[in-house]
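Backbone-to-sequence.
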C-alpha cells in the first residue's frame, strides 16, 4: 500500500510499464505484498488516447496501465536496469516454426474491461489480428514501420496467432513487447467512436481501468477486478497528475505528492538529482533510490519538407557534429 509504504517488489509487480525506476516510496523494506492503496505519479497530458495515432509518451505510458500486449518486458527486483527480456503478457507461450514464422498461444479466459461497448467479452486471436493490422495500416501511425518486415498475421484458431515475416527480423519479439508499440485494442471501440482518441474508447485488458480523465489536470485509474493474472494488481487506484513545469514537479515530489520520480515517469535526471538529493534525504528520509544509466533516448526532429533540412547534406552534417560518446558518458 502506497499510503503505508510501497515495497520495490510491489511497485514493479504492479505493472507501471515502460519506466525505469530511480525512486520508490517510503518504507521500502522487504515485506509481503499487501492489497490496496494509491499509486501517485506525474505524467504529461495525453493529446488523445489512440495508441496507433500518436507517438506521445503521455498517451502510450498511460495506456500501458490499461492495455495488454502479446509480450511484455520482464520486471522485478532481479532484473538489472536496462535489460529488456521479453516474457508473456497475453501470450501464454510462443515459438518459431522457421526463421520467419512465429506462433503464439494466447492465455485462456482473458476478458476485456467490463465497460461498453466491449462489456467484458473474452479476448480472442481475432482481436490480436485486428490490432496488428490496424497498427500496420491505419493512416497516421508514425510507428507503423516497426512492423514493416511483417508479411501477414493470421488467427489459426480462437487462441492461436501466426505471424509470417518477409525476412528474418531479430527485433520482432522486442517490438511486440514494447509498451510504445503494439498494444491490443478492441474493434468495437473503433467501430463505435471512429477511432480511439476519446477517453471513453479506452477499454483494454490491462491491470487498471480508466475511471476518469480531467484535461490538463490528470486521470484516475482503478483496479481491474477481472485481471487475468491472479491476485494482481495489488494497488487499488492510480492517480496521474499533469504538471508541465519542472520546478513545480520537483517541489511536489519533495513534498511527497508523487511516489516515484516525476520524469518519463519514475526517474529523476542527474542535473535535478544534484540539486535535490540533500534536501530529499531530510524531507523523505525513507525513500529508496537506485542510480543507473537511463534508457530514454534524446531525439532531434527536422522538417525535411522545407529548407534547410530538406537538404540531406545539412542533415548529415548535423549528424556528424553530434558527439555521441560524450552524450552517453
Amino acid at each position: 500500500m502506497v499510503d503505508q509504504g510501497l515495497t520495490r517488489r510491489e511497485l514493479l509487480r504492479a505493472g507501471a510499464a515502460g519506466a525505469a525506476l530511480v525512486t520508490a516510496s517510503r518504507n521500502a523494506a522487504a515485506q509481503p505484498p499487501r492489497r490496496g492503496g494509491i499509486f501517485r505519479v506525474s505524467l504529461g497530458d495525453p493529446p488523445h488516447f489512440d495508441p496507433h495515432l500518436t507517438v506521445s509518451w503521455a498517451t502510450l505510458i498511460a495506456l500501458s496501465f490499461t492495455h495488454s500486449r502479446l509480450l511484455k518486458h520482464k520486471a522485478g527486483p532481479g532484473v538489472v536496469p536496462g535489460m529488456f527480456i521479453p516474457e508473456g503478457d497475453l501470450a501464454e507461450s510462443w515459438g518459431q516454426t522457421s526463421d520467419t514464422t512465429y506462433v503464439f498461444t494466447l492465455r485462456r479466459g482473458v476478458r476485456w474491461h467490463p465497460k461498453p461497448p466491449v462489456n467484458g467479452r473474452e479476448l480472442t486471436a481475432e482481436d490480436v489480428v485486428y490490432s496488428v493490422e490496424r497498427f500496420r495500416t491505419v493512416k497516421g501511425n508514425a510507428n507503423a514501420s516497426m512492423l514493416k518486415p511483417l508479411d501477414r498475421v493470421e488467427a489459426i484458431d480462437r487462441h492461436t496467432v501466426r505471424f509470417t515475416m518477409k525476412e528474418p527480423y531479430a527485433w520482432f519479439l522486442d517490438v511486440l513487447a514494447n509498451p510504445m508499440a503494439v498494444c491490443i485494442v478492441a474493434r468495437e471501440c473503433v467501430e463505435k467512436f471512429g477511432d480511439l482518441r476519446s477517453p471513453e474508447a479506452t477499454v483494454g485488458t490491462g491491470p487498471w481501468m480508466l475511471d476518469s480523465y480531467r484535461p490538463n489536470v490528470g486521470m484516475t485509474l482503478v483496479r481491474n477486478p477481472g485481471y487475468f493474472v491472479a491476485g494482481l494488481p495489488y494497488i487499488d487506484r492510480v492517480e496521474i497528475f499533469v504538471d508541465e513545469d519542472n520546478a513545480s514537479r520537483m517541489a511536489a515530489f519533495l513534498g511527497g505528492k508523487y511516489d516515484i520520480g516525476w520524469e518519463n515517469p519514475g526517474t529523476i535526471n542527474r542535473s535535478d538529482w544534484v540539486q535535490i538529493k540533500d534536501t530529499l534525504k531530510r524531507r523523505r528520509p525513507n525513500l529508496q533510490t537506485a542510480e543507473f544509466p537511463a534508457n530514454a533516448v534524446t531525439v532531434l526532429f527536422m522538417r525535411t519538407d522545407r529548407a534547410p533540412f530538406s537538404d540531406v547534406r545539412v542533415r548529415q552534417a548535423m549528424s556528424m557534429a553530434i558527439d555521441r560518446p560524450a552524450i552517453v558518458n
